[in-house]
Amino acid sequence: MKRVIITLVACVVSVASLRAYDQRERSVYSPSMEKSIPVTVVTPDGYDESGQRYDVVYLLHGFGDNYEGWTAKGGVAPLADLYDLIIVCPDGGRSWYWDSPEDGSVRYETFISQELVGWVDGTYRTNATREGRAISGLSMGGQGAFYIALRHQELFGAVGSTSGGVDLREFPDGWEMSRLLGPKDEYPERWEERAIVNMVERAPKDGSLAMIIDCGTEDFFYEVNVALHRRLLELGIPHDFYLRPGSHHWPYWRVSIQYQMLFFDNYFENN
Question: Which CATH number fits domain 21-270: 3.40.50.1820, 3.10.20.30, 3.30.465.10, 3.40.50.2300?
Answer without folding.
Answer: 3.40.50.1820
